[in-house]
Amino acid sequence: xSELEQTARIRANILxxxxxxxxxxxxxxxxxxxxxxxxxxxxxxPESVRAAMAADVADFGENRVQEAGEKAEMLADVGGIxxxxxxxxxxxxxxxxxxxxxxxxxxxxxxxxxxxxxxVSEAEQAGGRARLPVLLQVNVAGENQKEGFDLAGxxxxxxxLAQFRAEVAQIVELRHLEVRGLMMIAPYVxxxxxxxxxxRALRELRDDLARxxxxxxxxELSMGMTGDYEVAVEEGATLVRVGRAIFGERA
Length: 251
Ligand SMILES: *Cc1c(COP(=O)(O)O)cnc(C)c1O
Known about the structure:
nine-stranded parallel β-sheet; binds pyridoxal-5'-phosphate; TIM Barrel; single chain; 9 strands; about 45% helix; alpha/beta
């Protein structure tokens, strides 16, 4: 496929996804404008990012700090890109991540939150940013997933929930972090309808936290990917992370 054809295809994909997002939002009685599409550009070249930007996408998701940093440099001539970290963050990559990302979706432990807090504090002393917006990644689904705060028993597991709340209470005190909401990777399912209960569980958890930690907006719910983003929007997603449906299959 020529680059021109590739650009046209990416554009058509984005328009179709926006239509599906809008329809899903309306079905749920939500404002379609309350859902943001994040184009997951991992493994794809900077040209693909440019093509998506030509179709009015400004938010891009990457799961590796190194790859995102290289891409951001190659796209330094383009203004207005917002980079989202959606993959696990190793603690030795935290400083670099603080310099690149506009929103870190994958804060999955108190320890990582504290390390990020210190890195942002250092960045501020060096004349950089003073605050980093983050989401807390939780695992409400179980199913052999390792990443995220472990709430595999869902809201019914009161012991784990209490432990999580105690950690959240410490994280919200870290003044260099700005907790904006929750993120989840739903288990892979053939029928997206079967992911609905975990999306709903994440929204309920968010509503719970918004009551307990009322000083924060808790406005963002990052959930839904190529296979299930419409169901996620029906259940309250504000950030959907879509890769394959925009850029095609990854190598
Ligand atoms: C790769 C990835 C996505 C995008 O997945 P697609 O199936 O390509 O839409 C979304 N979220 C996370 C955390 C990912 O790693």
